[in-house]
Amino acid sequence: MGTINIGLIGAGTVGGGVVKIIHKQLGFFNTRLGLPVALKRIVDKQTDRFTDLPVGDTLCSGDSDDILNDESIQIVVELVGGTTFAKEITLAALKRGKHVVTANKALIAEHGPEIFEAADSNNVSVYFEAAVGGGMPTIKSIREAMVGNEISSIKTIINGTCNYILTQMSTRQLPFKQVLADAQKFGYAEADPTLDIEGGDTGHKVAIMASLLYGGYVPFERISVEGITGITPDDIACARDLGYSIKLLGIIKERDGVIDVRVHPAMLPNAHILASVSDVFNAVLLEGDAVGDMLLYGRGAGEMPTASAVVSDIIDVARNILSGVPRRIPMDYYRKENMLTLQPMESITSRYYLRFTVCDKPGVLATIATMLGKKDISIASVVQREGFSEECVPVIILTHQATEKNIQEALAEVEKMDFTRSKTQLIRIED
Fold this sequence. Notes:
Layout: E1 4-9, H1 13-32, E2 37-43, E3 59-61, H2 65-68, E4 73-78, H3 85-95, E5 99-102, H4 105-121, E6 126-127, H5 138-145, E7 151-157, H6 160-172, H7 176-185, H8 194-197, H9 200-214, E8 224-225, H10 233-241, E9 244-255, E10 258-269, E11 281-288, E12 292-299, H11 303-323, E13 349-358, H12 364-373, E14 379-384, E15 393-399, E16 402-403, H13 404-414, E17 420-429
Parallel strand pairs: 1-2, 1-4, 2-3, 4-5, 5-6, 8-10, 10-17
Antiparallel strand pairs: 7-9, 7-11, 9-10, 11-12, 13-15, 13-16, 13-17, 14-15
Helix pairs in contact: 1-11, 3-4, 4-9, 6-7
């Protein structure tokens, strides 16, 4: 077979890392692995980026059509981000019979059915390891390494920005906005951090993992997603005093055929393995029936970790081409007509941390306990912290297992009472 040519669209942070790795490892790929791969073309509208990269003899330009119209290119690497232009070039490449490698989680989560249908129709593949967990082999673990298991649950800390913010709020006792500003200054958060801090980035990744896990399509827009903007230093201090850490979790569970997929802040016991995952690090905890618990841990973003995953996919596709098996792992089940039904958020059961802000007067706690009891919510413990103003005090209640619907209804009633001074803080507890 002749050379397997690669075309790279997007030479930014991750794309630049891909160029560096291919330049460094090309001899190993060609000789030791026996894969005649070559980076033939690179495209980026900011052509000045090429001067700082080891492009060698690679053809560089600013027009993506140079790659799409080059019939000798068999693998297109899409690293431009977003869901507009990225979608256009991905579909165009697939329709021309080219395999696609991408790190674009929003593209896969929001337009996966259309993309995989196009790949299936044209007998090519789409690889997206870098879309979930950066350098951690999350997709390969689900699709390949754990294929002999029924995976009953995944709990994941999969957004480095949020994990950095929560870690710093805990260790430095600083408010959310101040830590976010620091994260932006150090490059851990985007100028517009909305997708990260409101949980959307985690939601995209969880939607992809759940779709792979259960062999159907889990739409991102049907997942309940909550971010971390409402978490305060008081909540983190209370959690610490109670023996818990607060993390933004992506949760995927299946019990008796019911699929539960959600993203929200959660309190984890300090002894829980995910409680120790700090700063920008990510982790994915999978529970398989054969292998038991398996933890993937590492940097979920950044130039070289993400580029490492992209190159891994390139090599997988090249091996498929060389073996004459262009679609070794078909994704034809990932279609809109195969949409999976998710458990409504209101019907989940959990333990809860509730922080009420109320007037400091007799009878308030008894009234709250009575209102919770009317909704079949059993109290596990109560803490009233000192040192606050005479006008209002925080009352912390941890519950036993209760349904989300009952909790929300009870809180709505409590917040109508004249002794309530602000909205009740709710954080779910994952043991």
